[in-house]
Amino acid sequence: MSISDQAIPMLMPLMRDTMGMIGDAIVSDIEDTLDTAFPMGMERYSHPSETPYLRTGRLFVGVRHFTEEDDFALTERIVSSRATDDGASENVPFDLEFGTDKNAAYPFMSPAMDRAKDTIPAIVRAGVSL
User: Fold this and answer.
1) Whose CB has fewer CB within 10 Å in the chain, the N or C terminal residue?
2) Distance between CA 16 and CA 24 in Å, rounded?
């Protein structure tokens, strides 16, 4: 089945809404994994390869998504930023996700993206049937 060039502009709002639903689902999953509270009284941080514990909430609130549109292409971007008013590096989300030369990775976005592969088809079907 091919879509004519005239149909694409009419489908773009539907596709944009569907991409937004995918972004909402992924951000919600990331927020759920970042919601594990730091265990008070324990002298341990999360282990490498575990999701970082929720300590200040700054990483949690920085996860968001937005849709970019260019001609006939839509891209949903999932990003994480961190409030840096405490003097901490703004690279914290990147350093946690991928690790540094001194610290192991504590991924929190890529596992959610991996899980999304199972849910995206259902979201697209729901979006197209609106």
Assistant:
1) N
2) 12
Taking the alpha carbons of 100, 107, 121, 79 in that order, is the dihedral positive or negative?
Answer: negative
Long-range contacts of residues 69-78, Cβ cutoff 8 Å, at least 24 apart: 69/12, 69/16, 72/8, 72/12, 74/12, 74/15, 74/16, 74/19, 76/19, 76/20, 76/22, 76/23, 77/23, 78/23, 78/26, 78/27, 78/30, 78/109, 78/112, 78/113
Enumerate the domain spans of the chain: 11-128
pTM of the model: 0.72
Token pair 């596709």: residue: 15
The string of pLDDT tens digits covering residues 50-60 is 666 555 666 66
Average pLDDT for the chain: 77
